[in-house]
Write a structure and sequence with these properties.
This protein has about 150 residues and is of the alpha+beta class. It contains four helices and six strands, in the order ββαββαααββ.
């Protein structure tokens, strides 16, 4: 809705019929809410997501999140695409099986980096390792990790 001399404002309106004693529609009840700020925030979030998508795509990056407490591993489509794996299939696999994609000679270094992140003062790590691809080859990956949240336990 645009008012003279003002910027466009957005409203969400819900309509319900008002019924008389016989059940017939006697009028209309409307409840409105201004959502201009929410629409602006949604547009800004959408633009940020698109910028991130383009940056990830342009840099040929994949990313993941690992929740240690819940042993939950969530990775981006780009992560799985780099490895030639189907994202939907891989997301259905338990997190514990993700260790099987790490080359056996690299597991110790990866576990050491993870342990250092969890027990030491460092909040960033970097390790080179090989991950299994869908084609049965090994892909060298530079994995950079950062602790983003620390729980009470």
């Amino acid at each position: 809705m645009t008012f003279p001399g003002q910027a466009t404002r957005w409203f969400r309106v819900h309509y319900r019929p008002f019924r008389d004693a016989t059940g017939g529609v006697a009028g209309l009840i409307a409840i409105g809410e201004e959502i201009t700020q929410r629409r602006a925030a949604e547009r800004a979030l959408s633009a940020t997501r698109e910028s991130l998508r383009l940056a990830v795509e342009g840099a040929n990056l994949g990313f993941f999140e690992y929740d240690v407490a819940d042993d939950a591993f969530v990775a981006s489509d780009e992560y799985y695409a780099m490895l030639g794996l189907d994202a939907a299939t891989e997301r259905a696999r338990p997190a514990a099986e993700k260790w099987a994609t790490v080359h056996r000679e690299d597991i110790a270094a990866l576990r050491a980096e993870l342990a250092a992140l969890l027990t030491g003062p460092a909040r960033n790590s970097e390790v080179e390792l090989r991950l299994a691809t869908g084609a049965g080859r090994w892909l060298w990956v530079l994995q950079r990790s950062r602790v983003t949240e620390v729980g009470p336990d």
